[in-house]
C-alpha cells in the first residue's frame, strides 16, 4: 500500500482555509494578533533573510558564466522596454475597466470606515522629492553592506553584475570565487526548501490575523471595487499575459500550474519576496538561463509590478468617482503618465501601492483623503495584486530568454513530461 503524502500546495491551501475560519470566528479578538502575529512575522523574516544571499550568489554565477558586458547591456535594455510596455498595458486596462464599470459611483461614504494613512504620507513626502534622477543615483550603492541590509534590490543587482563581470575578467583566478558562490547558492536553496516546510503554519497565522482584524464585513461597502480589481487581474493574467506567453511559445496555464505553490503562498502572505527564491529556481528548470533569471526576476520586483499598477489605476478613478469628480481625457492621460513614472524603483517601500497613489492623486485634483476609505480592504486587494506581480515576473524571465535566443525548449518540454510521469506513477 502506497503511503499518502499531501503536497505543499495543499498544505498551504489548508493553512489558508483554516486561517480564514479562525479569523472569522475570533473577529475583533486582540488575542489572535497577540499570539499568531509573531508566528507569521517569524516566517516572513526567515524568507526575507535568504533573498539577498540567493540573488547575489546566483547573479554573480550567471554573469560570470556569460562574461559579456555587451550581451548583458542588451538584456538589460530589452528587459526595461518589456517591463515598461507591460506595466503601461496594465495601467490602461485599469483605467478602461474603471471607466466602464464605475465602481465608485453611488458609494455611500457614510457607511465607509476611514483608516489612518499618515504612515504612508510620511513615506510619500520622501518619495515625491526623489524623481527619476534620484532613482538612477540610488541604483549605485555607496555601501553594498548597507544596500543589502535595507534590501535595495536595484543596488544589489548593480553590484552583483559588476562583481560577476570582474570575476569573469580575471579568468583562472576567479574559479575559487565561483566555487564559493556556487556553494552559497546550493546551500541557500536547501535552506529555502527547509523554510518552506513551515509555510502552512506561517500562512495560517498571517491569514488569521488579517481576517480577525478587518473581518469579512469590511468588504461589503467596497465589494464593487474588490470584485472589479480581481476581475481585471484575472483578465490581465489570462488574456494579456496569456497572449504574451503564446507569442513566446509558452503556455500560461502550464506556467500557473508550475507556480501553484508559490502563488498560494504569495496570495496568503501578500509578499512577492516569500516566493522569489523558488520562482527563480523553477524558471531555470523551465529552460531560462541562470543569468537571465537572476537579472530579470529581481529587477522586475522594482520595475514590473503589473498587479500593483493595475490596482492603482482602478483605485485612483474609484476615489474620483466616489467624490463625483469627472476626470477629462487629458487628466486621465496625466494620471497614466504619472503612474508610469512613480511606480518604478520603489518596490522596497512599505505599502508601495498606497505610497504611489498618494504621490499621484494630487496631480489630477483627486482628494488624498479618499484613500483612507479603501485602506480597510487594502490587504485583501494586496493579496491579489501580489499574485499578478509574481506571474508577470516569472513569465518575463522566460520571455526574455526566448527573446535572447537562449531559451532551452528541450528542458521546458522535459519538465512537463517528467511531471506527467510522476503524476501517473502516484495514481
UniProtKB/TrEMBL annotation:
GO terms for molecular function: symporter activity. Keywords: Cell membrane, Membrane, Symport, Transmembrane, Transmembrane helix, Transport. The chain crosses the membrane at residues 7-27, 47-67, 79-101, 144-170, 227-248. Its main location: membrane. GO terms for cellular component: plasma membrane. InterPro entries: Na-dicarboxylate_symporter, Na-dicarboxylate_symporter_CS, Na:dicarbo_symporter_sf. One of its GO terms (biological process) is dicarboxylic acid transport. Pfam families: SDF. It is a multi-pass membrane protein. It is found in: Cell membrane. It comes from the Bacteria. PANTHER family: PROTON/GLUTAMATE-ASPARTATE SYMPORTER, PROTON_GLUTAMATE-ASPARTATE SYMPORTER. This is Glutamate/aspartate:proton symporter GltP. It comes from Kurthia sibirica.
Amino acid at each position: 500500500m502506497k503511503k499518502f503524502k499531501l503536497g505543499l500546495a495543499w498544505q498551504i491551501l489548508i493553512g489558508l482555509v483554516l486561517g480564514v475560519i479562525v479569523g472569522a470566528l475570533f473577529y475583533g479578538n486582540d488575542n489572535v494578533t497577540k499570539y499568531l502575529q509573531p508566528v507569521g512575522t517569524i516566517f516572513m523574516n526567515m524568507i526575507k533573510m535568504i533573498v539577498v544571499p540567493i540573488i547575489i550568489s546566483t547573479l554573480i554565477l550567471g554573469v560570470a558564466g556569460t562574461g559579456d558586458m555587451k550581451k548583458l547591456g542588451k538584456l538589460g535594455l530589452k528587459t526595461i522596454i518589456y517591463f515598461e510596455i507591460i506595466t503601461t498595458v496594465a495601467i490602461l486596462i485599469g483605467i478602461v475597466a474603471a471607466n466602464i464599470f464605475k465602481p465608485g459611483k453611488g458609494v455611500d461614504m457614510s457607511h465607509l470606515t476611514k483608516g489612518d494613512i499618515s504612515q504612508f504620507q510620511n513615506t510619500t513626502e520622501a518619495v515625491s522629492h526623489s524623481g527619476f534622477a534620484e532613482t538612477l543615483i540610488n541604483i549605485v550603492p555607496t555601501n553594498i553592506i548597507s544596500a543589502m541590509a535595507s534590501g535595495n534590490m536595484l543596488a544589489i543587482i548593480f553590484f552583483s553584475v559588476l562583481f560577476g563581470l570582474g570575476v569573469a575578467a580575471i579568468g583562472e583566478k576567479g574559479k575559487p570565487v565561483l566555487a564559493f558562490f556556487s556553494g552559497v547558492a546550493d546551500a541557500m536553496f536547501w535552506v529555502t526548501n527547509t523554510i518552506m516546510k513551515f509555510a502552512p503554519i506561517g500562512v495560517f497565522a498571517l491569514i488569521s490575523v488579517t481576517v480577525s482584524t478587518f473581518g469579512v464585513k469590511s468588504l461589503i461597502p467596497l465589494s464593487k471595487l474588490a470584485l472589479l480589481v480581481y476581475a481585471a487581474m484575472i483578465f490581465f493574467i489570462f488574456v494579456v499575459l496569456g497572449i504574451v506567453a503564446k507569442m513566446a511559445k509558452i503556455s500560461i496555464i502550464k506556467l500557473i500550474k508550475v507556480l501553484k505553490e508559490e502563488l498560494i503562498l504569495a496570495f496568503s502572505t501578500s509578499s512577492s519576496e516569500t516566493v522569489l527564491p523558488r520562482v527563480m529556481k523553477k524558471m531555470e528548470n523551465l529552460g531560462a538561463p541562470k543569468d537571465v533569471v537572476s537579472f530579470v526576476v529581481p529587477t522586475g520586483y522594482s520595475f514590473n509590478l503589473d498587479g500593483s499598477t493595475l490596482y492603482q489605476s482602478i483605485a485612483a478613478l474609484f476615489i474620483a468617482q466616489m467624490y463625483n469628480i469627472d476626470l477629462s481625457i487629458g487628466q486621465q492621460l496625466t494620471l497614466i503618465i504619472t503612474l508610469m513614472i512613480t511606480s518604478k524603483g520603489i518596490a522596497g517601500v512599505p505599502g508601495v501601492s498606497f505610497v504611489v497613489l498618494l504621490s499621484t492623486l494630487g496631480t489630477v485634483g483627486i482628494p488624498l483623503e479618499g484613500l483612507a476609505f479603501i485602506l480597510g480592504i487594502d490587504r485583501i486587494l494586496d493579496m491579489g495584486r501580489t499574485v499578478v506581480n509574481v506571474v508577470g515576473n516569472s513569465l518575463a524571465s522566460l520571455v526574455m530568454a526566448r527573446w535572447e535566443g537562449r531559451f532551452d525548449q528541450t528542458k521546458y518540454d522535459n519538465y512537463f513530461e517528467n511531471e506527467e510521469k510522476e503524476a501517473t506513477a502516484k495514481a
